[in-house]
Write a structure and sequence with these properties.
Largest sheet: 8 strands, parallel
Distance between the termini: 22 Å
Family: Belongs to the mandelate racemase/muconate lactonizing enzyme family.
CATH superfamily of the largest domain: Enolase-like C-terminal domain
GO biological process, one term: amino acid catabolic process
EC number: 5.1.1.-
CATH topology of the largest domain: TIM Barrel
CATH architecture of the largest domain: Alpha-Beta Barrel
Cofactor: Mg(2+)
Number of domains: 2
Strand order of the largest sheet: 5-6-7-8-9-10-11-12
Helix content: 25-40%
Oligomer: single chain
Order of helices and strands: EEEHHHHEEHEHEHEEHEHHEHEHEE
CATH class of the largest domain: Alpha Beta
GO molecular function, one term: racemase and epimerase activity, acting on amino acids and derivatives
Strand content: 15-25%
Number of helices: 12
Radius of gyration: 20 Å
Length: 335
């Protein structure tokens, strides 16, 4: 008889290597939730990042996990529990921990179970947080000309900052992330300058809801939905307004929905960006399996935290190493 699945969780705080600033604020540490699912002596793990933008806190996620813990203890099937949960970081942690557990029980990798191509390596963007033009240019130069840099920009000195960064790293391509911080006029007025600075993608320039204005807008730089894209139900709205979608597992509620979202987005002709909240390599690991489907990868959490987890990813000038199954996603470890 198969043993029941039990759930354990804990909060872990990862100090950041430096202050991380985006359009809606700054942070000095990543507060994450680590979930473990245990069955038959095997342990599946995952990490999620509760995000205030989506009305999530460590406490609200803990409340959801307490509920799931009680449901599992009362004998409710985990698949039924997951099906009833709303997308978000609590569901993400459970879904990804369950995939890790299934891989260990089956003696296979998660990539094999999902029929995904697991990359041997990939290029990930490396992120510049908001600062002065001079400081951002210095930070860009310190990255030593990686292929892809992600630039956080608020609505102040957009062109000046981007021109300074481009001058410091002229052979890189750039993704600009406004985090809902611009107006339509700021987007239109700066699009040509950004294109001239090797910017290939602009993420979520307008606030969610206000991006209705983007329908059939033609700009010299492609637009990517982030805060407006959570699950497949958003795609019909997004397809006429954006050219790409940023898939983050804390928004989709785990790898299961993320894979389905990627497949349907591609069928609609949208490019895929796989992204992350600020967390450790354990949060990046499930998302890494989507890299083979993605035109853009933004999984640089391991270089943003001051100290990563054991068996984490190595990122050298934007080249992200292979997933180590001792961390997550394979049968080579038993935690």
């Amino acid at each position: 008889m198969t043993a029941a699945i039990s759930l354990e969780y804990r909060q872990t705080d990862f100090p950041l290597a430096q202050v991380f600033r985006i359009a809606r604020g700054a942070k000095t540490e990543a507060k994450v939730v680590e979930v473990s699912l245990i069955q038959d002596g095997k342990v599946g793990r995952a990490e999620s990042v509760p995000y205030n933008r989506y009305q999530e806190t460590i406490e609200s996620v803990a409340n959801q996990l307490d509920y799931v813990q009680n449901r599992l203890a009362s004998g409710v099937d985990i698949d039924l529990i997951l099906a009833a949960m709303s997308p978000g970081s609590a569901k993400n942690a459970i879904d990804c921990a369950f995939w890790d557990l299934k891989a260990k029980l089956a003696g296979k990798s998660v990539a094999q179970l999902l029929a995904l191509t697991e990359p041997a390596s990939c290029i990930t963007a490396q992120t510049l947080s908001i600062d002065t033009p001079e400081a951002m240019a210095k930070a860009a130069a310190a990255l030593e000309h990686p292929p892809l840099i992600k630039v956080k920009l608020d609505n102040q000195d957009i062109a000046e900052k981007m021109q300074a960064i481009y001058k410091a790293s002229p052979n890189s391509q750039f993704i600009v992330d406004a985090n809902e911080g611009w107006s339509m006029s700021q987007l239109v007025d700066n699009a040509k300058v950004l294109a001239d600075c090797n910017v290939v993608l602009i993420e979520q320039p307008l606030p969610t809801g206000e991006d209705v204005e983007l329908i059939n807008v033609k700009l010299p730089v492609a637009l990517c939905a982030d805060e407006s894209c959570h699950t497949r139900k958003d795609l019909d709205y997004l397809a006429a307004r954006y050219q790409a979608v940023n898939i983050k597992l804390d928004k989709t509620g785990g790898l299961t929905e993320a894979v389905a979202l990627a497949q349907e987005a591609q069928a609609l002709g949208l490019d895929i960006m796989v992204g992350c909240m600020v967390g450790s390599s354990l949060a990046m690991a499930p998302a890494y399996l989507l890299a083979s489907k993605a035109k853009y990868v933004d999984l640089d959490g391991p270089v943003l935290v001051a100290k990563d987890r054991e068996y984490g990813f190595n990122i050298d000038r934007g080249l992200m190493s292979a997933l180590d199954h001792r961390l997550w996603g394979g049968a080579s470890a038993n935690y």
